[in-house]
Amino acid sequence: MRFIDILRDHLDEFNERYQGRITTTMRQAIHAMLSCRSNSQSTSHWACQRCTHTADFPLSCGHRSCPQCQHHTTQDWLAKQQAKLLPVDYFMVTFTLPFELRVVAKYQPERLYQAMFTVAASVLKDFALNSSKLAGDIGFTGVLHTHSRRRDLHPHIHFILPAGSFNKHKKHWQKNKGKYLFNAFNLAKVWRARLLENLTLQPTVTLPVSLPKKWVVDCRHVGKGLPALQYLSRYLYRGVLADKNIMSDIDGQVCFEYEDSQSQSTEVRTLPTVQFLWLVLQHVLPKGLRRVRDYGLLRGNAKKLRLQIQLMLAVTGAQFQVTESPIIAEVKRRLATRYCPCCQQPMRFMGVVKRTTNLIPAT
User: What kind and span of H or E run contains 256?
Assistant: First the structure.
């Protein structure tokens, strides 16, 4: 059972039902997914170097909302993040948008999600500078998730950060001891005040009249960083619902399974088909909006400093895991490999064939 097949079979009904709510970005995602790995546009041309066999294969759409694509992109991101890991404990801080502001996420997602990243990052940096345990520069990675496990609209940002800071004046790494980092209630108060101030200053954003006084921020110790990275990568570059979780599409009803966050048990949710399609497609992000962002010591241009910290910790006796080596080869994008069905030898990519043009040579 594939999401794309359900979308194709019920597209007309979906367009009629949600005609006034489908954004341009959603339509672009729908077009990409429906043309993914089909022969309608173009194919990749391969040739065996041992025998004379050639073959054409349909191209993937590459859209980040497509459940068929981006598996290698996710693995590449995870490998790059592993190279940044430090041999220290990690914390995960989650900033959650209250229910009353989800209406803003529906109609002005780009402005809201950008504000969420900006404000949450500023809160973490200021808390670190004012902390007696840290009092220095920290690094963290944030990933935007727009849905709950039931796939309802539930915007929140997960940040993972190593438990320590770097004093650039003393050239010293300050380790955070214990399983406490920041007070979650204080984080929530500042998060609420700053985000509302940010949104109020944007003239095109209209806030609801009634807003809760208490917001939710969770700050918890997660041990080593790799498990947290793997959790964040789960929905990073692929669709919000994997095809393997779709159980059936019968008599206008779609059933899919999910893991309940409270009981940790597998539950089944059933929705009318068109409503199911909207449930998934409402999470298509605005074009150009980055879902994952690195800050401070983990940003791209801090690589040299990060390597110095890794070596500094290694000298002091900190133990790196096998996958957390401070000296790690540069991650390179893996090339696609196809094997000849005749002689089982690797085939060579020759280019892309389009219907209206000749072969485009590979570079």
Answer: strand 253-259
